[in-house]
Design goal:
- By secondary structure, the chain is of the alpha/beta class.
- The protein has 12 helices and 12 strands.
- The chain has helices spanning 15-23, 40-43, 48-59, 75-78, 85-100, 148-172, 193-201, 213-233, 250-253, 268-277, 293-300, 308-328; strands at 3-8, 28-31, 64-69, 105-107, 119-125, 131-137, 175-178, 207-212, 238-243, 245-247, 255-259, 283-286.
- The protein has an 8-stranded parallel beta barrel with strand order 1-2-3-4-7-8-9-12, surrounded by 4 helices. A 4-stranded antiparallel β-sheet has the order 5-6-11-10.
- Strand 1 (3-8), helix 1 (15-23) and strand 2 form a beta-alpha-beta unit.
- Helix 5 packs parallel to helix 6 (148-172) and helix 8 runs parallel beside helix 10.
Length: 332
């Protein structure tokens, strides 16, 4: 059965945050920034003993580490700058450490998989004044997106990196994932045909996706998401699901706005049912939360930590969807 995970940007979580996540019924933690893992700052890759200590601490609150993140491959590496091969060496070593720590899912971030100048970002006021991210296409972007030749050079560096990472992932039994390009412009590497290219080039069972419903919904709405779940899910290449709702899409409106889970254009119950039908039983991660009023008030009063009002809403909504799915499918 699917579980609930929450992504955090730091490994230095206070006990109060871990206790609150446990109380809300979160099953797993996703560590989304590779450079924050213990040991990376000092040696370029995680320290096994300190990572195991973190794993035990999270487990003591009734949760597990679900997804970890490899050290980033920067623009220097992706362009082949002298000395940048050390980044790939560190990523390979990090993957070995994750395997030794019994962590089975790692994401690799790569510079250049998004084109940030193709859309204007804005803050969209939603229900009751809730603040959400919006983006609208620009007609004549400056600078222009990379040429086909430049993108092929990018893919060559990607294939060089995964050529070293995939055998290690297989040896240490770690699933190696990429996330769709966000924003999902049609010619970005991990959008549309590029997502297929990843598993076509590396058909290993250990290579797949952190499949982001929101990002792919921004590209084409519920129909596109359902089609991709069928395509990738039946091949067991969906390792983690990011769940958020959106209004509009780049394909239909030339713009999109993220929204509260119950207030967008996508049919989330149908999407979770589609995941169930292809046999997905990993984590559902509600991400990119909408900013709500009481969290703003708490921040003004000096409260630190996660935006608990928004997170509580998102976690509760996902848990309710999963409970309804289990009842519908006769699993309760």
């Amino acid at each position: 059965m699917m579980k609930v995970s929450i992504a955090v940007g730091s490994c230095d979580l206070p006990d109060s945050d871990l206790k609150q996540l446990s109380q809300l019924g979160v099953d797993c933690i996703d560590l989304k920034l590779g450079h924050t893992l213990p040991g990376v700052k000092e040696q370029g890759f995680p320290d096994l003993d300190r990572l195991l200590q973190l794993k035990r601490r999270i487990r003591s609150y009734g949760m597990e580490i679900n997804r970890v993140t490899l050290p980033d491959l920067s623009a220097d590496y992706m362009s082949g700058s002298p000395g940048s091969e050390l980044e790939l060496d560190n990523a390979v070593q990090a993957l070995k450490v994750f395997g030794e720590a019994g962590l089975s899912l790692a994401r690799q971030r790569l510079a250049g998989d998004v084109f940030p100048n193709l859309a204007d970002c804005y803050t969209a006021p939603h229900r009751g004044g809730a603040a959400a991210r919006g983006e609208a296409l620009v007609r004549n972007p400056v600078p222009a997106p990379p040429s086909m030749q430049q993108m092929e050079a990018w893919w060559q560096r990607f294939e060089l990196a995964f050529g070293r990472l995939v055998p290690v992932a297989e040896e240490y039994n770690v699933n190696l994932a990429v996330h769709p390009s966000d924003t999902p412009h049609f010619n970005t590497p991990f959008a549309g045909p590029g997502l297929h290219r990843v598993i076509d080039t590396f058909p290993s069972r250990n290579v797949g996706y952190v499949y982001c419903v929101g990002t792919r919904g921004e590209a084409g709405g519920t129909p596109l998401v359902l089609d991709e779940i069928h395509q990738y899910g039946r091949k067991n290449r969906i390792f983690l699901v990011h769940l958020r709702n959106v209004r509009g899409s780049l394909a239909t409106a030339g713009a999109f706005e993220e929204s509260l889970l119950d207030d967008g254009h996508m049919n989330l119950p149908k999407i979770l049912l589609a995941l169930h039908k292809v046999g997905y039983n990993g984590c559902i991660n509600p991400d990119h939360i909408t900013h709500l009023e009481m969290d703003r008030v708490y921040r003004q009063k000096g409260h630190e930590g996660l935006d608990w009002v928004a997170w509580s809403y998102s976690i509760g909504y996902v848990k309710a969807l999963l409970a309804s799915l289990a009842e519908f499918c006769g699993e309760r």
